[in-house]
Design a protein that fits this description.
Length: 401
Amino acid sequence: MNMSARTAVTAQTTTNKGGTFRNLPEMMSHGELRLLPLIIVLMVVWMVMQYLTGGLFLSARNLTNLSGQVAITALLTSGAVLIMIPGFIDLSLGATVAAAAVIAAMAGAQFELALWQTIVVTLGFGLVIGLWHAFWIAWMKVPSFIVTLGSLLAIRGLSLVITNAETISPSPDILVISDTSLSAMLSIVVLMAFWLAFALLQLREWRARMQAGIKSSFFSVVGIPVVSVGIFACGVMVVAVSYRGLPLPVVFVLAVVALTGWLLRYTAFGRRLYAIGGNRQAALLAGINIRAHVSIVFAFMGLLYGLAGLVLVARLDSAPPGAMQGLELNVIAAAVIGGTSLMGGRGTVAGAVIGAILMESLSNGMSLMNLPSAYQSITVGLVLLFAVYADMRGRGGRFGD
């Protein structure tokens, strides 16, 4: 049964049984509210971290710092969802972002390029890597695991070679990316526009379901999601206005999340990605150009490499060639925690971004508690293990299936 049919059955079952609140657990596990448990877990983690850090975690200063950490992971997680839904994976994330940061630093400091030229060069570098991956995966039929693993090793080595294993200092101009924040009024406008657009899209989805004869609860499709996002937007607004305003990297994240979420939920391109991941042979027989779709998502991921590299070098004010080791595991864990399947065919950008916030919140909280980085690695490993287990259980999979 495909995803649309499963959603329809779930919605019909819920309506037939009667009582939205009575069937809330079922909707949380299989229906429209499947992200609600993840949001509850995130809130619990925040409360625990607030207690363990003596009130530091939820301070405006730390939440602004956390947003900088989340920005890079969330940008890449949004792209990773587009790659994982059709059944592929990218292990080169950390190495490629570090290399993009090196390119950005060298372009500004050593070649004295203007800021806009540095941005173009860095995004172009990421795009080339994305197209390189697309060539081997989509056209040469080499498994994405092998291609991106090879890139991880090769690009990490390339970064060390071109920098002589030394950290590169960027041009001061690039720091505008991390130092710029929107004014209080503009921050409010951006967040309210994001929330309003989300509310309108949820209302459109509910109306489309009703017109298609799929009985869905307004409460579950529109009510709870819109209220939840509104509460989150208000919280971000309060923090942004009370401190420096909405940081520019967060604006990048909102734009990328809006774009990728819209592509997946409301375009034929997104539906075809789900079809490819659900049954690649059936998608091919249905006339879907798998090569073109795979090439596009890896090219888009390449642009995100460059954007994340720009945010990284601006945030660190340096470009260490060995930076971001293990980033790919954090991104994959965030996506899987958010409901994206390693087997393909299932996932949402919203869930993946919530997973990214959860992962970075754990890391940030443990840093405030002065725990060694080894404990953070242990936490990421265990979270990834349990997330994959939950994904397999959700699919009804068993060992050896």
